[in-house]
Amino acid sequence: MQEKKAETGSKNAKKANLLDHHSIKNILDESVSEIVTSRGYIEDVRMSNVRLLLGTIIIVIALFAQFYKKKFPENRNFLIGCIVLYVVFNGLLQLIIYAKEKHAILFTYPPAGSVTSTGLVVSSKFPRFSDLYTLTIASADPKSISAGKPVEFTKSVTQWFTKDGILVEGLFWKDVEALINDYAAEPKKKK
Q1: Is the pLDDT of residue 33 over 50?
Q2: Reported pTM
Q3: CB neighbours (10 Å) of residue 86?
Q4: What's the CA gap between 173 and 140, in Å, rounded?
Q5: Which InterPro entries has this protein been placed in (predicted)?
Q6: Interatomic CA distance for residues 79 and 61, integer angstroms
Q7: Disulfide: which of 23, 34, 74, 108 matches 41 by Cβ 3.0-4.6 Å?
């Protein structure tokens, strides 16, 4: 059945190199993003924009340090300032990635017309040398009164791919949608 589905949908089929861990995770993460956004959740790109802004600032600092008009002995203090700023902004960027994003693949706003006031944080883990893919859905603001309890599943990726590396989207969509439904059905926590 999986091979038949792969043959019929080969034009739009998502194919992964089964020997490449990152290729498999990338395809699954992209599919999760498609599924969540198709359910009415709009992607929240504010965190990505902050990271891009910090990266741009870091590049501008490096360019100023490289192309400053004075030569080395004369621009020593300026270079030290640029190096300090470069390290500070890079540290801030890494702190945001480590503390806020962690394994997140998608941040969302709440769906239009929803009773909840928080979006979702969808994160995934796919350890090296393992076939177990873990998908977690949690509230973007876990301290909110409307935040649901985080839900997750851990399953083998072998059930979602054919032997040729083609993702059987129907099976994967079913599993992810069931997880989204579990999150939506969770009773809200009380303060």
Answers
A1: yes
A2: 0.75
A3: 17
A4: 22
A5: Spc2/SPCS2
A6: 10
A7: 108
